[in-house]
From TrEMBL:
InterPro entries: P-loop_NTPase, Stf3_sulfotransferase. It comes from the Bacteria. The chain crosses the membrane at residues 61-81. Keywords: Membrane, Transmembrane, Transmembrane helix. PANTHER family: OMEGA-HYDROXY-BETA-DIHYDROMENAQUINONE-9 SULFOTRANSFERASE STF3, PAPS-DEPENDENT SULFOTRANSFERASE STF3. Residues 406-419 have a biased composition (Polar residues). Residues 1-11 have a biased composition (Basic and acidic residues). Pfam families: Sulfotransfer_3 (PF13469). This is Sulfotransferase domain protein. Residues 1-37, 406-436 are annotated as: Disordered. It comes from Stieleria bergensis.
Length: 436
């Protein structure tokens, strides 16, 4: 073999070896990629339940922490209620006359209606958040009022600290439902010590007893009497503190299923019902509860939770129609959301007059100013049906199937079925601590 042939032969061998090395390297890279993809897939599969487990664990820890704070407060409030009967025997003589209740679907303008009518402060009174959470009993109200008086004497440092905390920690929630300790709030919060607050659904969303609180008209006689007596006691204590001559103004969407029971307890009550297209109100309500459910380890998009709220709000929708037949026309008005947000002060004042409420000139001016400001408001709360697995057509079919076509016309008889939700037996003992 010549030298040139030998060189060419060696070159071909080297080239072949190089190609083999490249093929081996490529094959090794491919194997590593497949291995990495497999490991990533396995890791993702393993991580999903792990993240869910951690979320549930954090939720249980948070629920335990909240209950550890609530239970002593519940005991204190119940003892304070008992002391009230000893310290203030006049409470039994306080009359709750012609209270005005605002009910309806959540996210349908109930808060707007409440705050507009609360401007008539010469006539109406509503419980602020601090009374509901910290001082439902009369003796507690006087105690906190005394502490507030002493705080003012030294320049109101406690009040300034509270204001700072509200600005610091209330920003996210204020986009959905602005509030402060002095804002009028839903007075069903005052029923927390008596196991009558539907807000417990955030902690126990799979417990049937919590969902039944949304329709006390279907509860047992003993439970209904117990909760109504507690609620009447709350209102009597508030009037004893604020003024016997005032009229209670109460906003509770969760009381939409309480109307007949409230009518038995307060025969001269007045009622405003509000509702909004379910395509808007249902996802808005679920979206507003997202952070609350997440705090306790639950996902608001869980189909069981979504189904529970759809059934509940559908039942409330039909109840608002039924009340047109079962509540006297002089005591009930059903207002669509689109009409309310026009914030027509003349319409609101006319409504109050039709209910027999005398409104002072100062109150008229305050209501007109509040209505003008309300017309400039634009909601910062955004939501979509799809994120909850909901369909607009199906929602409308459920809600509008038996919707009456004209005011006070007869409608197909539809008994509001008791909302059902899958039962989590682990919640039984925990819930019984606050419902007894």
């Amino acid at each position: 073999m010549t030298d040139h042939s030998l060189i060419d032969h060696n070159a071909r061998i080297a080239q072949s070896a190089s190609g083999t090395d490249r093929s081996s390297s490529a094959l090794a890279d491919s194997d590593r990629q497949v291995t990495d993809d497999t490991n990533n897939t396995v890791s993702a599969v393993n991580q999903a339940p792990s993240n869910e487990s951690r979320q549930r664990f954090r939720g249980r820890v948070m629920a335990a922490a909240v209950m550890s704070l609530l239970l002593p407060l519940i005991v204190i409030h119940r003892l304070a209620f008992a002391f009230d009967r000893i310290l203030f025997p006049r409470l039994a003589r306080v009359q709750v006359q012609s209270p005005l209740f605002i009910v309806g679907l959540p996210r349908s303008g109930t808060t707007l209606c409440h705050r507009l009518m609360a401007q008539a402060s010469d006539r109406f009174t509503s419980m602020p958040l601090w009374e509901l959470l910290l001082a439902p009993a009369l003796c507690e109200k006087y105690l906190i009022a005394g502490l507030a008086w002493m705080d003012r004497l030294i320049g109101s440092p406690a009040k300034k600290l509270i204001r700072f905390a509200e600005r610091k920690f209330g920003g996210t929630q204020s986009a959905i439902h602005a509030t402060s300790l002095e804002s009028p709030e839903e007075d069903y919060l005052g029923l927390l010590p008596f196991g009558g607050c539907f807000l417990a659904v955030l902690i126990w969303p799979f417990h049937p007893s919590v969902w039944r609180l949304a329709n006390i008209d279907h509860a047992s006689h003993s439970q209904r009497q117990r909760l109504l007596a507690a609620y009447k006691g709350l209102l009597q204590r508030h009037l004893a503190f604020r003024g016997h001559d005032l009229t209670v103004l109460s906003k509770n969407p969760s009381f939409t299923g309480w109307v007949h029971s409230l009518q038995e307890t307060f025969p001269d009550m007045r009622l405003i019902g509000l509702r909004r297209d379910p395509v808007e109100s249902v996802p808005s309500q679920l979206s507003s509860l997202r952070d609350g459910f997440a705090l306790f380890g639950h996902d608001v998009t869980d189909p069981r939770i979504v189904t529970g709220f759809v059934k509940l709000l559908r039942d409330d929708w039909h109840l608002l129609d039924q009340y047109l037949d079962t509540v006297h026309p002089d005591q009930y008005q059903l207002i669509p959301y689109r009409e309310l947000i026009q914030a027509d002060s003349e319409a609101l004042l006319s409504l109050l007059q039709s209910f027999g409420y005398d409104i002072s000139d100062n109150d008229v001016e305050r209501i007109e100013a509040a209505c003008a400001a309300a017309r400039q408001y634009r909601s910062q709360h955004h939501y979509q049906l799809s994120e909850f697995g909901l369909n607009a057509t199906e929602l409308q079919q459920q809600f509008f199937a038996t919707n009456r076509l004209s005011p006070r016309s007869s409608m197909a008889s539809e008994t509001s079925p008791e909302t059902t939700i899958p039962h989590d037996e682990n919640d039984d003992d925990r819930l019984s601590l606050i419902s007894s």
